[in-house]
Every structure is written in structure tokens, then in C-alpha cells.
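Researcher: Let's do a round of design. I'm pasting the C-alpha cells now; please hold your answer until I've finished.
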């Protein structure tokens, strides 16, 4: 019933169109010159469980745009000279070839390329390009906990935080529901800007007093009490640590592997065509 209602509304909305020829094409819902939309074209537009109101709005907008595009295309063909049309057709065909080729190569790559990048290859790439991995901003290794000043476990948390061994950090993590914010993985490198985003108590105006290697601080502001520990600090211009750039290097090596694989496919295709006489070049 919903679909019947849709088509009735659609037909009523388009009945005044001079191009409409109801019986010209089987199953045609909209006809414009030699072009038409059938029921399948219309039904593909509609989401599941659509209402008559929604379907009318969606279909009307689509048909109006489709008709506008068809009219523009017809006028363009009538008014653009043939040599320019030939040039446009060549561009369209080139784009079609590129689109199909990329789709095919992408599927082959997905199915056949080994995406495993070995750690030793990543390390070798990193060592061979020492000058390529300079930091463009400071990095820090740090942990912090932000709490309410009235937290009844403040003393216990402070003791565990300062101790900082694996067991203590695990115990700190078990108390996380009593924190306002926290970050305990102090073995990974983090951008200094992320540190500023995490807490207001350390910021660009006072960082020189606090961001120092192997320093622990207990700070307080209107938002709570902060325990902060800095393990290591790297400055802009220092060599980026391998752990920090490892994902980037992995992606670079993967892209290189993809390019090499695609070049091999292209070369094999061409050689096969030549060897089987499918490709003939007449001088």
C-alpha cells in the first residue's frame, strides 16, 4: 500500500511534465525524451520502513535532479562542437579505464599481497634513515592521576603512584573509579600538546618548571589534586623514537610493497599479451 501510494503521488507530481510518456517504456515511472526511470530505479532510492511522506520527498528530489541533469546533458550535446565532445569522451573513457583498473588491482592486492611487515624490516628502515625522523614537536613519557582533594585514599594512591612499579601501577589502575582523570601508561611517547589537553595545571606558561625527566609533582588547582610523573622528555629536533614512528614506517613499507606488487602485475600482463601475440604493434 505504501508503494502504491508513492507511485500515485509521484505520477501526480509529474503529470504536467511535457516529456512524460506513460506507455512509452514498460515499467517506466518517469520518462524524459529517450531516457526513463523504472520502478527498480525508484525503489533503490528508498530506505527500509519508509513512510509515504518520506518517499515522496526523496523521490521528488531525485527525479527533479535526474531530469535537470538529463536536460543539461541534452543541451550540452546540442551546443558543444563535435571535436570538444570527442575530447570529453576520451577523458570519460580514460577515467573509466582508470577506475576499473584501480578496482581490479585493489581487489588483487587485497587477496594476494602479504601485509605482514617484519620488525627487522622496520628497524632497518629506521636505522637507514636516521635524519628523516626528526621530531617536529616535544614528546613526553608521563603518568598522572587527577583526584578530588577529599579522596579518602589520597595517601595510599600517592604512595603507589610514587613507587611506580608494575604492581603499584596495577593497584592504581584498580582504583580508577575514584579518579577524575588518569593516564598510567608511562612507557609510551605522547605529544606534549596531549599533556596540555589532559590537564590545565601544567601548561605552556609553566611547563619549563615541571616538564623534566625523572621528576614527580603533586599539584592542585580548582579542579582537583594532580599526581604527575615525567619519565623521559624529547625535544623538537631530537630523533623520534622507533616506537613512536613504527606505525608510520610500517605504512610506508606496506605502500612500497603494494606499489611493487602492482608494477609486477602490470609488467606480467603486458609480457603475456606480447608473448601470446595479443598485443601487436604495426610499424
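Researcher: That's everything. Go ahead.
Model: Designed sequence:
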Amino acid at each position: 500500500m505504501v508503494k502504491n501510494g508513492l507511485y500515485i503521488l509521484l505520477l501526480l507530481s509529474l503529470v504536467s511534465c511535457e516529456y512524460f510518456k506513460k506507455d512509452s517504456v514498460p515499467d517506466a515511472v518517469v520518462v524524459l525524451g529517450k531516457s526513463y526511470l523504472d520502478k527498480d530505479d525508484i525503489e533503490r532510492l528508498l530506505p527500509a520502513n519508509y513512510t509515504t511522506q518520506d518517499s515522496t520527498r526523496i523521490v521528488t528530489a531525485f527525479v527533479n535532479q535526474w531530469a535537470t541533469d538529463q536536460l543539461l546533458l541534452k543541451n550540452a550535446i546540442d551546443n558543444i562542437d563535435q571535436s570538444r565532445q570527442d575530447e570529453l569522451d576520451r577523458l570519460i573513457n580514460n577515467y573509466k579505464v582508470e577506475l576499473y583498473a584501480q578496482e581490479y588491482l585493489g581487489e588483487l592486492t587485497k587477496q594476494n599481497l602479504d601485509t605482514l611487515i617484519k620488525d627487522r624490516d622496520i628497524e632497518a628502515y629506521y636505522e637507514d634513515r636516521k635524519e628523516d625522523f626528526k621530531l617536529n614537536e616535544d614528546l613526553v613519557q608521563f603518568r598522572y592521576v587527577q583526584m578530588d582533594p577529599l579522596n579518602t585514599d589520597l595517601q595510599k594512591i600517592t604512595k603507589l603512584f610514587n613507587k611506580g612499579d608494575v604492581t603499584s601501577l596495577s593497584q592504581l589502575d584498580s582504583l580508577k573509579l575514584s579518579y577524575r582523570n588518569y593516564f598510567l601508561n608511562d612507557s609510551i611517547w605522547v605529544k606534549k600538546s596531549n599533556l596540555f589537553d589532559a590537564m590545565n595545571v601544567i601548561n605552556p606558561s609553566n611547563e619549563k618548571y615541571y616538564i623534566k625527566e625523572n621528576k614527580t609533582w603533586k599539584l592542585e588547582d580548582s579542579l582537583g589534586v594532580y599526581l604527575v610523573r615525567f619519565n623521559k622528555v624529547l625535544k623538537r629536533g631530537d630523533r623520534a623514537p622507533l616506537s613512536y614512528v613504527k606505525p608510520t614506517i610500517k605504512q610506508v613499507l606496506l605502500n612500497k610493497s603494494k606499489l611493487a606488487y602492482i608494477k609486477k602485475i602490470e609488467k606480467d600482463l603486458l609480457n603475456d599479451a606480447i608473448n601470446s601475440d595479443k598485443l601487436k604493434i604495426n610499424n
